[in-house]
Amino acid sequence: xxxxxxxxxxxxxxxxxxxxxxxxxxxxxxxxxxxxxxxxxxxxxxxxxxxxxxxxxxxxxxxxxxxxxxxxxxxxxxxxxxxxxxxxxxxxxxxxxxxxxxxxxxxxxxxxxxxxxxxxxxxxxxxxxxxxxxxxxxxxxxxxxxxxxxxxxxxxxxxxxxxxxxxxxxxxxxxxxxxxxxxxxxxxxxxxxxxxxxxxxxxxxxxxxxxxxxxxxxxxxxxxxxxxxxxxxxxxxxxxxxxxxxxxxxxxxxxxxxxxxxxxxxxxxxxxxxxxxxxxxxxxxxxxxxxxxxxxxxxxxxxxxxxxxxxxxxxxxxxxxxxxxxxxxxxxxxxxxxxxxxxxxxxxxxxxxxxxxxxxxxxxxxxxxxxxxxxxxxxxxxxxxxxxxxxxxxxxxxxxxxxxxxxxxxxxxxxxxx
Length: 418
What we know:
Elements: E1 18-19, E2 30-31, H1 35-41, H2 43-60, H3 70-83, H4 98-117, H5 145-148, H6 184-188, E3 196-197, H7 203-214, H8 229-244, H9 258-261, E4 264-267, E5 273-276, H10 284-288, E6 290-291, E7 306-309, E8 311-313, E9 316-318, H11 324-329, E10 333-341, E11 346-353, E12 361-368, E13 376-382, H12 387-390, E14 397-401, E15 405-407, E16 412-417
Parallel strand pairs: 1-5, 2-6, 3-13
Antiparallel strand pairs: 4-5, 7-16, 8-9, 10-13, 10-16, 11-12, 11-14, 14-15
């Protein structure tokens, strides 16, 4: 992997590598724009993005082993995910390394694309990845046109067209903004553990839902980056982190610790190796030279949010009587379940079995995208529309929805209210 896909051992500097903060990036700060904006207002930039990928694909046929080729760019994600099965420093899914590792991955991929755009004569200073803004426009979820059009305006084949199955695309799968109400490690995820998915509110919610909904290569952690839309999807995930970090009650990063110690190595556009620590990518505008547009609607952040633990007695979960009115009148209500027992990776739902009802109340889906040794995962579900069912005076039972309906094996269930 280190020789062919640009990753080296974590927390170790390879020979001749440069630390990211020691390497100057004097490009202008340029916005990463949404697919909708580009298609409507800037077809020239759409053409530049497609040309950059077309140039990369063509060059890769003769240079398949170069770290800047398309096969090796896609393989970075595959090999890092596989390495995470045994190395907690590479648990880039199911831990609080999720956000910074993917931010660094997108940054170097973007720079390599900018090199291919010039037919490898220089680094184009203004090319930035597009953002697939599925969170703001549901109708765009199944039609990211830069990637799904069969041809461009001239009639030439679209190099970004890729086989996808579009499996689910349920509206609830992209409720991203409720995840922004979480603070600290509930947002980022928790320290890595080899036998658990310690994901945060974004990762195994909207992030994984869109992967599974898209299907094809995107539906599997080990093949996801083979689809060029992966990078636009993750640019939107990165945007959510950028937005959240500006909200009252949010912090730019978790408490100091592994984010200062662990390091990963990526190959830059000129073939040099660059060592990146998670803390290096927190201030993305100044360090990485891109920005995002401000949200069009006001965001509800973590300041003022409150957690109310559900009490588990006689196999049922009860909300404290004294907080029920607060929960009923809140703007957002989420269900947070930590360390749910799961049989392995997969897509799972959580349902409430309410007294007097014959059909369980479906609460939402979460996806476990991690190695095969996983025994538990977290779930953060927007249950604003199901809050009344969760407040039944006789309590409810919580069930895991997989191949069968089974009792939810979880010790911590909390209603997160904002």
